[in-house]
Amino acid sequence: MMGRAHLIIGTGVSLSVLALSGYEVTPAAVAVAVVGSLLPDIDEPNSMLVSRALPNKLLRLVQLLMIVAAGWVFFTRLAPPPWNLVLALLMISASFMPSRSMRKVIIFLIGIGLAWYGESYAPWNYIAGCLLIICTLVPHRGLTHTVYGTAAWTALLYGTTRLHGDSIWLAGGMAYLLHLLADSLTNNGIKPLPPFKWKLRFKLMSTGTRKGTRVENVCIALTAVLVVIALLRYKHLI
């Protein structure tokens, strides 16, 4: 499914289920549900989540900084000649890599930073950093689209937010799981339990096609109905 559909379905359904189950829907729960609904596609650099977190303007800034750094390496002779020239040329070449590859490199470096330096602030940063590193190395709809990915994300939320109530980690975990269920409607489906080759797929649609758009719209409409039901019940309770 497209990112827009994942965002609406994952966020709408998870928050509605929370409200109908009697949990408080806090701003933190809403924010985590939004992230969770898109997070499985972090393994796709051009996905809605990654492209919004790392927009093209930021990529251009990174490219500019890499070119400036290349000039600094060359003219200050940080490395003895001719290695200063070699390093500068490598940095300039890297600055012109495609946006998709650039985003992967940035995510990888953020993951290293969290794993290496973030652990001293909170142990969960090490886990988050490792997950980011892994996401840059696996193919799309790989590890992030599995039961293991869902469990890791939910456990990470539970460990960091459980002191603030259950609504946050439940919202994030449900939104993540709903992303996987939505992708199971496609022709390609998902492999929820690798290394087992079994696929969960219902073959109702193909992303980006006219039929796929119709299926997405039906799912969004059903989500809207559920949201209205949840809102009416909430008004009734107050």
Automatic annotation (TrEMBL):
The keyword ATP-binding does not apply. One of its GO terms (molecular function) is hydrolase activity. InterPro entries: YdjM-like (IPR007404). Keywords: Hydrolase, Membrane, Transmembrane, Transmembrane helix. It comes from the Bacteria. The keyword Ribosomal protein does not apply. The chain crosses the membrane at residues 60-80, 101-118, 215-234. Signal peptide: none annotated. This is Metal-dependent hydrolase. It comes from Paenibacillus ottowii.
